[in-house]
Structures are given as C-alpha cells and as structure tokens.
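Standup notes
- DV: blocked on the single-chain target, sequence here:
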Amino acid sequence: MYNDRVKLIINKLRLKQEIDRSEILNWGVFFFLLLAFFYEAVRESSWLSLILAIFISSGYFYLLARLLKRLYYSFWPFLGFLALFLILKIFNQPFFSMSFVAYSAALFLLVVQAYSLWTPIFYPIVSWWEYDFRYRDDLKINVLIKDEKSDGRLTDLRRGAGCIASFKDFKLGETLKIEPFDDLESMKFKVEVMSKRKYSVGRPYNYGVRFILDDPSDVSVFSNFVKFWKSERKLKQKKKFKNEPT
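- DV (later): unblocked, structure below
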C-alpha cells in the first residue's frame, strides 16, 4: 500500500489478515446501519427518509473505506463522527426495539474496528507539535542490524508494537534489535519492521514495528519497559507544566 503525499508502505503479507478484518468490520457497520434505517422507516412509514439515508451513508462509507485503505489519519475524525451519531441514535430508539439492536451492533463493530487499528503499526503517534525535545513522548534508542548501529527514537509504544523514528532506511520484514539509552541498556528487544512512513524531506522515517517476545523472560522485561515508558511520559508532563511560565 503506497501513496504519494505520505509515502507509506506496509507489509501486506504479514498484515493481510488484520487489514481484511478491518475492511469486513467497516462494511459490517454499514450493513447494521442500513438495517437500522430500514426498521426505522417501517416503524415510521418514512420511505423517502430511508432513500435519503441510504444515499448519504453510502457516500460516507465509501469515503471511510478509501481513508482506511490508505491509512490516512483523517480516518479517525470520520470514525468519531460516526460513533457519536450511533450513540445519539441508540438513545433515541425504543429500548430493545429492532432499530436499537441494529444501531448497538453497528456501534459494537465500530469499537472493535477502532481497537484493532489503534496500534503504532497502522497509526503511529508522533508528537510533532512538541518542539522541545525534553518533553516529547519518546526515548532515545540504538538500533542495531547485523553489525551496524544507528541512532533512533522510540516515539510510540502500544499493544506490543511501537514506532521507531530513524533516518536509516530499513526494509519491511527486517528484524532489528533496539536498546534504550544508557540507563536501560540491560533491556534489549528484537522487533520486526511492519510498516514504513516518510512524511517529507528532512524528517526521519517512521517505522511501525512489532516486538518479538518468544521467551517468557522477554515478556517480563517488556512489561517492565512499558511501565517505565508510561512513568517517563508522566514525568515529562509534570516537568513541562512545572517549567511553563505562569
């Protein structure tokens, strides 16, 4: 998957099942939404409203599918508006009516879809808005491949995956070793490159990586690392607010 504005490549072979599942969930939400519209139309005998609702929702979901296919970040505001719409419709339905059940099913599938996509592999969070590196949500790391070592930053860490910002050009499917800065040099992890984003000239590549935790001891070390990551974020936020002029 590749686009010209944000140069994005993902490992289609390894991520095919997850991508297919997201697309199925997207059209599953659409199906239950149409079902709810139909039940509402039958109850209220409003067929013109049904035709209009089908027309508008078809265009909306076509756009949503396009954004999802390209993994644009603008997918999330559209998903948020849809979730808000479904919540409002649920509260305006007779309790346990067919339309209530259909809207609830659509919202449930939407939540499942959002959860499956909310990972640094598909949508890494990079705090470009924070210009002061002291307060950015990232950690300095060394990235090792074969006998080469390069500098990088771990900018996101969620659900067993992370985002590495590096000017080094790695290939999809490559296995890297990363080690955080000196205070944590006892922690070393193997990761597999699953996705690759390049926003513009002068900015580093953003690699969506999946942590390889084959051994129970790796899981334990990784769990401690996640706790450290969260505590560091809180500490940086406290320092930022403390140092802000009043």
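- Follow-up: The CA atoms of residues 52 and 179 lie 56 Å apart.
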